[in-house]
């Protein structure tokens, strides 16, 4: 047999075996391939980095937030007069709003609904979740602006660097480019 014909037969055999294997798995390929869709993944902020991060339990998240707050407070060198604004700022950032958000619907109850009913239920839950998230974000924004106004110009510069792009408080996290160097006059 010619080598080209052998290679074609082997490739065809492997393709058929792959399709047969996928068929035995019930077509649930996404549970193996996509960590966001696999069993037990609730897509609650873990995303595709779940393998490295592990599950972030609320106590661990709270400890990390308190550690970052302590570092920021030390960098800002707050006065006694600014303590009230600091307390309001840190209280507004606590994840209490996340605890009041609607949980994922019960799959057994959802299975009893028709497709249009399921879509309506998911839309209502999504609207409720977005309303809660927006309220929490608005509270955080107001507290941040109030706290920022209580800072001196020097403290505002420190805060801008700590909460700017590429930092924990800004968009992008570690993937964002570092801030541009200050312009020399």
Task: Tell me what you see in this structure.
It comes from Rhodoferax ferrireducens. Keywords: Signal. Pfam families: LTXXQ (PF07813). Residues 163-185 are annotated as: Disordered. This is LTXXQ motif family protein. It is built from nine helices and no strands. With 185 residues, the chain is mainly alpha-helical. The chain has a domain at 104-150. The chain is elongated. The termini are far apart. Residues 27-52 and 168-176 have low confidence and may be disordered.
Helical fraction: 55-70%
What is the gyration radius calculated from CA atoms?
A: 25 Å
β-strand amount = under 5%
Query: What is the end-to-end distance?
Result: 78 Å
Overall geometry comes to: elongated
Per DSSP, the total helix count is 9
Q: Identify low-pLDDT runs.
A: 27-52, 168-176
Q: What is the mean pLDDT?
A: 75
Total number of strands = 0
Query: What structural category do the secondary elements indicate?
Result: mainly alpha
Q: How can the largest sheet be summarized? A: none
The ordered string of helix (H) and strand (E) elements is: HHHHHHHHH
